[in-house]
Design a protein that fits this description.
Elements (H helix, E strand, L loop, with lengths): L4 E6 L20 E2 L3 E2 L1 H10 L4 E5 L4 H8 L13 E5 L12 H6 L2 H6 L4 E5 L3 E2 L4 H10 L4 E8 L12 E6 L2 E6 L7 E11 H14 L5 H7 L6 E5 L5 E2 L3 H9 L4 H9 L15 E2 L4 E3 L2 E2 L4 E2 L2 E3 L2 E2 L4 E2 L4 E3 L2 E2 L4 E2 L4 E3 L1 E3 L4 E2 L4 E3 L6 E3 L4 E2 L1
Parallel strand pairs: 1-4, 1-6, 4-5, 8-12, 14-17, 15-18, 16-19, 17-20, 18-21, 19-22, 20-23, 21-24, 22-25, 23-26, 24-27, 25-28, 26-29
Antiparallel strand pairs: 2-3, 6-11, 7-13, 8-11, 9-10, 9-11
């Protein structure tokens, strides 16, 4: 079935619990898995599902996003018709940054002119390799106004990382979205992805703007679910939400699990990202690397275990990195010891320094920080 669908990736995510990584960049461009950004997974899933028209509704911190996207070149979205379009807020309005509904106001004409019948709305901070074609087939077969995509959770009482996120509830044919309070063992997790008829999308946005009660698009949709034909569809693929440093850290280290990595990067098509040329990594005499992902351009003189190492990282003599995520350009000097940590770009860890967090709360070193 040919999908007459446009993708809309809304970058209005909550950053309260991951602000260490989003001080200088949007959540969408937080580095992930050695060479990717979080938004790559949603963009690639859409492209692999034959969605050829993708728009990104941005909030602020545009520089890193524009640099990464390159007009959609890496996802084959640099086209004359359709392709990738970044929707900016109208900075002349006092309300430009108050909510995504206000940012949509100045871009409504763009959606009105779209020659599609449906819109796939998502966020950028859900890591997965998703087959949206199967989900759309369910949406189309049921002639639903809105299809809410979910992910089944079976061990909900132990998943503290999911507390406060959306949870789907049904009362007969009615669908409601509430909050996960941690008191249910099995539930359908709301992952902020919707197939919605374009006509219904425009109707909801215009009505919400006229009433002025909501500032967020997701809030406007949730309040109006009972007014439309709504169904739910539970995805088979694993989808990991990234709203906190703990979620980011746990999702990063899961890449080291072979089966998870195969599913994430290959199951429904490849994950694409901006290409950067770099030489192969150099492993010096005496170095040891175990169960780790090491990107190109690194120089490894010490020990790396159970860790993700991005491009152009230097690990000095007798330095030890365990259970950590080290971003591009970091320098870990001789005899330093890093365990349960996340080091941002170009961080510098001096000779003999010891940094240690724990599995629940990794130690964080900011972008360009120097620990001497």
């Amino acid at each position: 079935m040919k999908m007459k669908v446009a993708g809309l990736i809304n970058l209005g995510e909550r950053e309260t619990y991951i602000k260490e990584l989003t001080q200088f960049r949007p959540l969408a461009t937080v580095p992930f898995a050695g060479r990717y950004c979080l938004i790559d997974f949603m963009l690639s899933s859409m492209v692999n599902s034959d969605i050829e028209n993708v728009s990104i509704l941005v909030k602020d911190k545009f520089h890193s996003l524009n640099d990464h996207l390159s007009f959609g070149k890496w996802w084959d979205l640099d086209r004359k018709t359709g392709g990738l379009r970044v929707l900016y807020p109208d900075i002349k309005e006092e309300t430009a940054f108050e909510g995504d509904l206000q940012r949509l106001r100045s871009n409504l004409l763009y959606f009105e002119k779209m020659k599609v019948d449906h819109i796939l709305m998502t966020r950028s901070n859900y890591v997965g390799n998703i087959d949206f074609k199967s989900a759309f087939a369910i949406h189309a077969q049921n002639d639903a106004d809105i299809t809410v995509l979910t992910k089944n959770v079976k061990n909900g009482k132990t998943r503290v990382d999911l507390l406060g996120l959306d949870i789907l509830m049904k009362d007969g044919e009615k669908v409601y979205i509430g909050r996960n309070l941690g008191n249910q063992q099995e539930f359908e997790l709301g992952i902020e992805m919707y197939f919605i008829k374009k006509r219904i999308f425009l109707e909801i946005v215009r009505e919400a703007l006229e009433e002025g009660r909501e500032s967020s698009l997701s809030g406007a949709i949730k309040r109006r679910l009972q007014s439309y034909k709504v169904i739910t569809h539970s995805l088979e693929e694993e989808v990991l939400p990234i709203y906190s440093m703990q979620q980011y850290y746990n999702a990063s280290l899961r890449i080291l699990e072979t089966e998870h990595a195969k599913e994430l990067f290959y199951k429904n098509g490849n994950i694409f990202t901006k290409t950067k040329d770099a030489p192969s990594s150099l492993y010096m005499s005496g170095s040891q690397v175990k169960n780790s992902l090491v990107a190109n351009g690194c120089v490894i003189q010490g020990t790396v275990e159970n860790s993700i190492i991005f491009r152009n990282v230097h690990v000095g003599k007798n330095a030890v990195i365990r259970n950590s995520v080290v971003f591009q350009g970091a320098n870990i000097c001789d005899d330093a010891q890093i365990n349960f940590a996340v080091l941002d770009k170009r961080s510098f860890i001096g000779n003999g320094r010891v940094l240690m967090g724990d599995g629940g709360l990794p130690y964080f070193v900011g972008k360009g920080a120097r620990i001497l």
